Structure formats: structure tokens, C-alpha cells
Amino acid sequence: MNNFIADASSKQRVLSILVEDKPGVLSRIAGLFSGRGFNIDSLCVASSNDPGESRITIVTPADHHLIEQIKKQLRKLINVIKVQDLSEVPAVAREMALIKVQAKAEHRAEILRIVDIFRCKVVDVSAGHYTIEVTGNQGKIEALLELFRPMGIKEIARTGIAALSREASKTNGRN
User: Fold this and answer.
1) pLDDT (tens digit, 9 = 90+) per residue, 132-147?
2) How far from 87 is each of 42, 59, 74, CA to CA, in Å?
């Protein structure tokens, strides 16, 4: 089961695109989306384990027909090696966020309890703020933000989703 889709009716799709690490590749992919009126909700790009290749993870709202159209158009682009819809296969997805929360004296203990419960880290402290680092699926990050909102969130920086498909289990033969 995919852990980044909120529910079965969600139309949010996660595409993993393996590309040659060449200038202009990301621009062409983003141009394909904007030129056809497709929205990008999240974009994460980094080097892969193979030298000269990068992995682009894109979250986009699309139904089955539209995602098939997007995948076909992506595969036609120069420097695109592989396109996979991770919404249709077992996958692992995570996002990291930095959240700067107002830390008034009356809220400090509660903030630290929440940080402990959510297995986060306080990565910076000032007289009036805590900066919290959290890693997890979108649901975890959204739940944490809801708890911090009444205390006052000053800033948020999110990485976007990074995702990989799961390997087939050798013990039970499932894909």
C-alpha cells in the first residue's frame, strides 16, 4: 500500500523520473507540465546512485487518463531514461520539513512534548522560536502543522516528496 496517498479517491499521482544529469533536463520537464496546463504540487530532484543520472519525483493532480498522457509525453523527451507512476505500485515516500514555531514560555514544554511524540528534532533554538525538523509522509507533516498552528508558525520549508518503489518480496513472491 502506498503511504503518501491520503485515500483511494485521491487524484494525487507520484511520478518517479530517472533522467540523464544534463543541463536543461529539468527545464524541459517543467516546460512540458506548464505548456500543457498540468500542475506540479511537489518537485524533488537529486542525484541517483548512478553517476550521470538524477531522479526527479513529481506529485501532480491527475486521473488515470491524464497521467498516462503525461507519462507518454515524458518518455518522448531527450535525456529521460525511465518514467514510473509510483501511485500504482508499492512504494515508500517521505518528505522533510523545517518548521519555525513561536516558543512563548507557556508553550515551550508542549512544543517539546509534540516533538517527542512525532519523533522530530529541534535543530535551532532562539529566545522566541524553535526550529523543528520532521521527516515522514504528508499525513504526519500535516498533523504536526495542525498542532503547531495555534502556537504560531513563523516559517515552513518543505522538501517535497522523495519516493522509491518497493522491491518484490522474495519470501512470498508478491510484487
Assistant:
1) 999 999 999 999 999 9
2) 14, 10, 17
